């Protein structure tokens, strides 16, 4: 789940709390090429403001025009774009694909507010749930889910959809450095929620990356506070063992899918020995650490190192082995 989708739900909840009706759109299925995957979100308020994306812009423009003309005044409906479909006539996706969209009208009532609150908490990693949508009865509910399988399933016979909700991918950067700054920028571009932790006042004073949450504390303390879920990556990028080693000791106790620390082969061997001796880490815990961090791209500059780091995080997230690249 991209951080953009979390922003969609947080904004939908804010508008609903202010008394606005919102239309929540979800990509239910794609055929051929498509700009956004199943599960992608787009929300519009009753005054025409919107957040999120369903396509490169053509679908959103058509939807906003139809909404302004008075369409979508029922609790739930679906719409197909592309492929010469009657419903989306006149809209041809540039990629040539087909897009099925679920549209939910959510008035600012208590049940809708409660639904959006649970939705948000799930995207923040506080719950493991999926949405069950019954289009024939306009009923929506949450069910416990293990997160395994397609993001969206839709039974045409019962007209019931099952939409898995996974946390927005979170990147925790342990310590500020030139590599950290570029890494944060890359991660934001990939749609990650980015949090950087550093207790050093001088380092915090020179760090400015809009969209990044900055915490003036040791990364190890933040990591130990329960800040990680299964869609979390943790990277230590300072070359300072007082920050990096402590972060690694706490990181291996979390369900984070990627844990990495910057350093040469020699530095990494020395760090592994320190973590065994002083940190009490087992061989299995040390094996979880990507060190040296990142893909071997021959990187030299901070930007090149950051690129190698984020490429490796994405590789692991997508379940690719190094020799499959």
Automatic annotation (TrEMBL):
InterPro entries in the cross-refs = MoCofactor_Util/Proc, XdhC_CoxI, XdhC_Rossmann_dom
Q: Which Gene3D superfamilies match?
A: NAD(P)-binding Rossmann-like Domain
| One Pfam family named in its UniProt record | XdhC_CoxI
Q: Where is each XdhC Rossmann domain found?
A: 171-313
Q: Where is the XdhC- CoxI domain?
A: 15-68
Q: Which PANTHER family match?
A: ALDEHYDE OXIDOREDUCTASE MOLYBDENUM COFACTOR ASSEMBLY PROTEIN, MOLYBDENUM COFACTOR INSERTION CHAPERONE PAOD
Q: What is this protein called?
A: XdhC family protein
User: Which species is listed as the source?
Assistant: Vreelandella sedimenti
Lineage here is: Bacteria, Pseudomonadati, Pseudomonadota, Gammaproteobacteria, Oceanospirillales
